[in-house]
Amino acid sequence: MNTRRTSDDSAAGAAATGAVLTAAARKVAAVSTTPQLDAEVLLALATGKTRSSLLAFPERTLEPVAAERFAASIARRASGEPLAYLTGEREFFSLPLHVSPEVLIPRPETELLVELTLAAIERLPRPAVLDVGTGSGAIALAVKRTRPDAQVTASDASAAALGVASANAARLALDVRFVESRWFAAFGGQVFDVIVSNPPYVRSAEVTGALAHEPRLALDGGADGLDAYRQLLAAAGLHLTPAGALLLEHGYDQRPALCDVATAAGWRVVAMHHDLAARPRVLQLARI
């Protein structure tokens, strides 16, 4: 009697890839709107194979080491840990960015800030741009990639976040200056044509669920979500050229309150922009 077995059935009792994916998708369904995709991405990462290869042969079983890696990553995803932290990457403005728990995961709606920054500097030679609270470097790097002549500076209060951002810049060969600073503390009398920021604006009580896995420093905007704006608006005017623009991302329900805060701080509302979901997303301000 022939007891030799092929590699496809070498793991006695092991489930086939298709069944493993189905079971994994069920486990993460409570925390994900794309459970099947999440499971496929994590299985590809665990096995070193492409998603298409895995899907093409659903009858194959997993090697024990790959099965263990996959089970561990699915458990983390089921606990609410964002997929981007498990894969270590997130695409933003067509840039492949490394992300880690030290930085906020870039959101698609934040690409609007990049588009508006580029529009604001379109006619300026060698414009100076400051990205306050850069995190992974997403905004600063996207601006620099599109406008190589721009003098782009990116700041963050977190040294760990700046480490991630500077590594992204090096990997993408983009020359951005990184400065560790809480708001404008390290900038003295420096001025910029555009200051852009996606500051912490989640209300403290709402930093829960999946958000609790991301750095609180990058999310928590205080009881009303507006603490960071008060600090930005109090000092940003000292670092803008006379015709400069201040671009601020905000929560979809914060615009009226933010406009009040900006007006009280001596700013003029130039424009109000909506994201692709038609939600209020960015306020464009100028010095009075």
Summarize the structure.
The protein is α/β, with parallel strands linked by helices and 288 residues long.
List descriptors.
Helicase, Ruva Protein, domain 3; alpha/beta; seven-stranded mixed sheet; 9 strands; 288 residues; Rossmann fold; 10 helices; disordered N terminus; two-stranded antiparallel ribbon
Please give a structural write-up.
The protein is an alpha/beta fold. It contains ten helices and nine strands. The strands form two sheets. A seven-stranded mixed sheet has the order 5-4-3-6-7-9-8, with helices on both faces. Strand 3, helix 7 (138-146) and strand 4 (151-156) form a beta-alpha-beta unit. Helix 2 (35-47) packs antiparallel against helix 4 (64-78) and helix 6 (111-120) packs across helix 7. Mean pLDDT is 93; it is low at 1-13.
CATH fold-level label of the largest domain: Rossmann fold
Mean pLDDT: 93
Question: What is the H level of CATH, i.e. the homologous superfamily of the largest domain?
Answer: Vaccinia Virus protein VP39
Question: How much is the radius of gyration in Å?
Answer: 23 Å
Structural class computed from helices and strand pairing: alpha/beta
What CATH first level of the largest domain would be assigned? Alpha Beta
Helix/strand order, N-terminal first: HHHHHEEHEHEHEEHEHEE
The overall number of domains is 2
Distance between the termini: 90 Å
Give the CATH architecture of the largest domain. Answer: 3-Layer(aba) Sandwich
* Tally of strands: 9
Strands across the major sheet, in which order? 5-4-3-6-7-9-8
- Number of helices in the DSSP assignment: 10
**β-sheet strand percentage:** 15-25%
Provide the low-confidence segments as ranges: 1-13
Taken from the alpha-carbon principal axes, the silhouette is elongated
- Main pleated sheet: 7 strands, mixed
Helix content: 25-40%
